[in-house]
Amino acid sequence: MREPIVSGVAGGVGTRSVAVALGVGAYPPGMHRPCDLLVCRATVYSVGLAERHIAAVAGSPVLAVVVEAEGVPRAVRAKLKMLAPHTEGMVKVPWVPRWREVSNPYAEASQLAFRPADTVPKHLRDYHAAMVSLVRLVRPLVAVSAPPGLRPPPNPRASEPRQAPPQVQHIALPFHSITTAGGH
Q1: Nearest alpha-carbon partner for 105 in 13, 175, 14
Q2: Is 30 helix (H, G, I), strand (E, B) or coil?
Q3: Of 85, 61, 66, which is closest to residue 4 (Cα–Cα)?
Q4: Residue 164: pLDDT above 60?
Q5: Which residues on adjacent β-strands are paired with residue 41?
Q6: Does the pLDDT at position 40 exceed 70?
Q7: What are the residue ranges spanned by the domains of the chain?
Q8: Three-class secondary structure of residue 108 per DSSP
Q9: Given this model, what pLDDT does residue 172 score?
């Protein structure tokens, strides 16, 4: 089983946080390359970028939609409904307000999908649940090999040295070892 390929529609949508929580690398934002997981925000503009990305590449990714406290506006819900048939599924990923106030939010996000639910701090429980949902949707996509000519983005756990955000500690856990409640 290969690691999932993660991409974001633009900078600032939460791609790195999602990738760090899943323990994998991510393509630089805005690159129209086939991916397993595409990240966007719950705005008309960002979902429009997701539509363009999906139309430009082969395959149907899982769409992670980062949602702020206000929820998903009606116009965005309508666009997501139209986009849904072109994806392998969608997951609302809650925005974590605390991450604006800490010096290294990636340390809290690191490997979050691998943690047992009862060990996750209260302020991260909804984010953790979203990561578990993403794993369930992405796992079947990564059970097959990558499309020809597609190289996965750099993995922060790879043996080669790689620039990582300061103070981020990566734990070497294979993606296929993720277990969730109910054994899924």
Answers
A1: 14
A2: coil
A3: 61
A4: no
A5: 66
A6: yes
A7: 6-144+160-183
A8: helix
A9: 36
The packing angle between helices 74-83 and 44-56, to 10°, is: 10
Distance CA 97, CA 145 (A): 37
Structure pTM? 0.79
Q: 83: Cβ–Cβ under 8 A, 6 or more apart, which residues? A: 47, 50, 51, 54, 63, 90
Neighbours of 152 (CB within 10 A): 19
Strands (E), the chain: 6-8, 37-41, 62-67, 89-94
The answer to whether the CB of 127 falls within 8 A of the CB of 36 is: no
User: Model confidence at 63, in pLDDT bands (50, 70, 90)?
Assistant: very high
Cα–Cα distance, 38 to 180 (Å, whole number):
22
When the candidates are 3.10.310, 2.60.330, 3.40.50, 1.10.1200, the CATH number that belongs to 6-144+160-183 is 3.40.50
